[in-house]
Automatic annotation (TrEMBL):
UniProt protein name: Formyltetrahydrofolate deformylase
Pfam (any one): Formyl_trans_N
Protein family (similarity comment): Belongs to the PurU family.
Function: Catalyzes the hydrolysis of 10-formyltetrahydrofolate (formyl-FH4) to formate and tetrahydrofolate (FH4).
GO biological process: 'de novo' IMP biosynthetic process; one-carbon metabolic process
Active-site residues, Swiss-Prot/TrEMBL: 250
GO molecular function, one term: formyltetrahydrofolate deformylase activity
Pathway: Purine metabolism; IMP biosynthesis via de novo pathway; formate from 10-formyl-5,6,7,8-tetrahydrofolate: step 1/1
Record HAMAP family: PurU (MF_01927)
Species per Swiss-Prot/TrEMBL record: Pseudarthrobacter enclensis
Name of encoding gene: purU
Source lineage: Bacteria, Bacillati, Actinomycetota, Actinomycetes, Micrococcales
Length: 306
């Protein structure tokens, strides 16, 4: 959907003049919003952007007829003189009129703090995608209750902070984590197989900005040795679930699930290997989509604009 006029295509073989400075320095933004269904919402959004000379690069919306709500994600570009805060201020009268929950974001990468315990496959995958430029955000630090993956983190140039956790030190450890979130200005906390149950208070503090990976289609195979449980039950599908962290253990809004078909020939070790692949895939997608502002919370579920 185009709101401003574009230049004609250049004929093959013709010389291409340098683009005006204004075009070369265009800023990119993303608007996300949710509200009750009403006529005129999309027209109000597009008029707002058009009046400020913006061009819509991508537009997706979902009309939830069951809940009578609308969810929208619009990526647009234009004058770098605008900031997300300025756009939010100018858009607020429209948001108030329609009862919108909304946000504007620019291209500033989301800062991601990763938490890990002894299993390193998800951390390794996140680092690989981050260094390759496909993660969607910037890793800023690794926090762990074990020393196991210090070398992996430091080899990638990431600070590694060891915070031991015992029943007696749990509250202090969680307070230290919140201090690190502030210190590293982390926008997102990723539990990459971090094997500690977070307190209700910490879950509330990180609401909507902490993602966990679970080794099954929730809520199956909880507890120790999930792949031994899966083998004992003769499963035919191995799955993993990436979800937002809530005080309800492993029951937060689901962002992504990955599934891989298996059969009777897979023992617990083979199932674990396949499961780790599923965990890494589901988690990296969830992190990327969150960092690209493609995930909108909708009560206990999510709307994901891929």
């Amino acid at each position: 959907m185009t709101l401003v006029e574009t230049a004609p295509l250049t004929a093959p073989g013709a010389s291409v003049a340098s683009a005006p400075a204004e075009q070369q320095t265009q800023q990119k933004f993303v608007l996300t919003l949710s509200c009750g269904e009403r006529a005129g919402i999309v027209q109000a959004v597009t008029t707002f952007l058009f009046d400020r000379g913006f061009n819509i690069d991508e537009h997706q919306q979902f009309d939830d007829s069951l809940r009578e709500t609308l969810h929208l994600r619009t990526a647009f570009s234009g004058s770098p003189s605008y900031s997300p805060d300025q756009l939010e201020e100018e858009f607020r009268p429209i948001a108030d009129r329609f009862g919108m929950k909304f946000s504007f974001n620019d291209q500033t990468p989301q800062r991601v703090l990763v938490m890990v315990s002894k299993f390193g496959h998800c951390l390794n995958d996140l680092i690989f995608r981050w260094r390759g430029g496909t993660l969607g955000g910037d890793l800023v630090a690794v926090v762990s209750n074990h020393e196991t993956h210090r070398a992996m983190a430091e080899a990638a140039g990431l600070p590694f902070i060891h915070i031991p956790v015992t029943p007696d030190t749990k509250a202090d450890a969680e307070q230290r984590l919140l201090e690190l979130v502030d210190e590293y200005q982390a926008d997102l906390v990723v539990l990459a197989r971090y094997m500690q149950v977070l307190s209700n208070d910490l879950c509330r503090s990180l609401e909507g900005r902490a993602i966990n990976i679970h080794h099954s289609f929730l809520p199956g195979f909880k507890g120790a040795k999930p792949y031994h449980q899966a083998h004992a039950r003769g499963v035919k599908l191995i799955g993993a679930t990436a979800h937002y962290v809530t005080a309800d253990l492993d029951e937060g809004p689901i962002i992504e699930q990955e599934v891989i078909r298996v059969d009777h020939s897979y023992g617990p070790s083979a199932l674990s290997t396949v499961g780790q692949d599923a965990e890494a895939l589901a988690l990296s997608r969830a992190v990327r989509w969150h960092c690209q502002h493609r995930v909108l919370l909708d009560e206990t579920s999510t709307v994901v604009f891929r």
